[in-house]
Amino acid sequence: MSEELRLVTCTAPVNIAVIKYWGKRDEKLILPINDSISVTLSSEQMHAKTTVTASSTFLEDKIWLNKELQASSSRLSSCLEEVRAKARQLEAPAVNPDWKVRICSENNFPTAAGLASSAAGYACLVSALCQLYGIKGDTSILARRGSGSACRSVYGGFVHWKMGERADGEDSRAFQLHPACHWPEMRVLICVASDTRKKTSSSTGMKNSVQTSQLLKYRAEEIVPKRTLEMIEAIKEKDFSKFAQITIKDSNQFHAVCQDTYPPCVYLNPTSHQVSSLVHQINNFSGRFVATYTFDAGPNACIFLMEKDVPKVLGLLKYFFAEGDEFVRGEELPMEEATEAETSKYSVDRIAGGLKYVICTRPGEGPEVLAADQHLLNNQGEPKFMQ
Ligand code: DP6
Does pTM surpass 0.90? Predict the structure, then answer.
């Protein structure tokens, strides 16, 4: 008798931290040394998509990521084991947690772009597995075991990851501050830099920072607790000036910590610095905060701004950093070609091709369960791309 496989497919979004997570107090449990706050981006433009299934007939766990069979990693297996342990606590799990699983996952945005994909990936994996077993309630603690920042991608909108105090990590989880519709005018421009340099991974970088940076200790103890409260207030009040200023300061302090680390981890490139400078000059000439920037462990700027200011900022980014024509991707938003009178005011180095393209997007909701026609695995648990 052939058994009917239970298949679940989910998508999960990317999130961008405006108060950065950098540094762990427990490497294995992935417990941070400070709180962080992020904005979840719309899945429309960027998401991970994952199908999971389990069967008594599978002899081993198998996972395909972006069409490649993965060797087992300690992160992946510890995340999987945590979900299974949780499923075993259920009175009647929808699927037997002892069965081996098949997982097929892909991103709808180029991984080569160097955009953090592990947050969306692990949030998606955990969401799909929880749905498979019938695990209800918070899933951020489980997602955290895959990658710290992933715990924030299980919620939409504006999200707070509380570091928690317990040694077992059971209080280190994410909470939604507000759904995406709280700030409907907000837009996000992901500036994808042309850069192929091999970067220190976040995990290695933050480990070195914890061991060597005095500034990180000061940041975690003295700066972030106050800044987190201010950011929560700025988001609640939709006070863009306050939001923008804190976001810039926190990104720059994070990169100062990277510089203070031994050996230093350098994530920004010349284009990153010119994009930051452009944003500061736009704000100065306008006499108000038009835009704000933040950088993760890479050279790509993430710019937050209000919808009405998108055409001007896009035009200036194109003038200073584009090479070809296909510069704007994602949501179709109007662009205002920058005039000579405008551009001549700026003291910004023009780096043609410094940015490959800009993805226009906005805050969005958390993971979603998709219909059966979206499955990446067939009824035998084989990836459809192999057929
Ligand atoms: C700079 O979540 O990728 O993006 O927990 O080791 O997997 P691990 O690290 P990861 O670190 C993200 C660091 C950051 C800041 C942030 O997203 O808060």
Answer: yes
Residue 47, C-beta contacts closer than 8 angstroms, at least 6 positions apart: 11, 12, 13, 14, 107, 108, 109, 120, 124
Same domain? 145 vs 229? no
- Please indicate, yes or no, if residue 1 is contained in any of the structural domains: no
> Residue 232: which CATH number?
3.30.70.890
- Closest atom of ligand 1 relative to the 16 alpha carbon: 17
Q: Is-cis flag, bond preceding 263, omega within 30?
A: yes
Per DSSP, what are the bridge partners of residue 330?
360
> 215 and 174, same structural domain?
no
Element (H, E) at 262: none
On the CB side of 44, CA atoms within 13 Å amount to 13
User: Is 105 found in the same domain as 222?
Assistant: no
- 203 CB near ligand 1 (under 6 Å): yes
Q: Which atom of ligand 1 is nearest to the CA of 254?
A: 1
Specify whether 283 is located in the same domain as 334.
yes
- The DSSP element (H or E) to which 234 belongs, if any, is helix 224-237
pLDDT, mean of residues 177-192: 98
pLDDT digits (tens, 9 = 90+) for 284-297: 999 999 999 999 99
Q: Are residues 15 and 81 in the same domain?
A: yes
| The residue type at 30 | I
Mark whether 289 and 307 lie in a shared domain. yes
Residue 3 in domain: no
Residue that the structure tokens 């939604």 belong to:
176
Establish whether residue 192 lines the binding site of ligand 1, counting it when its CB lies within 6 angstroms of any ligand atom: no
Indicate if ligand 1 lies below 6 Å from the C-beta of 296.
yes
Q: Read off the pLDDT of residues 54-68 as tens digits, 9 standing for 90 and up.
A: 999 999 999 999 999
Query: 61: domain range?
Result: 8-179+370-386
Number of domains in the chain: 2
Classify the C-alpha dihedral 315-158-161-370 as positive or negative.
negative
**pLDDT tens digits for 70-115?**
988 888 999 999 999 999 999 999 999 999 999 999 998 766 555 7
Nearest CA to ligand 1 atom 14: 296
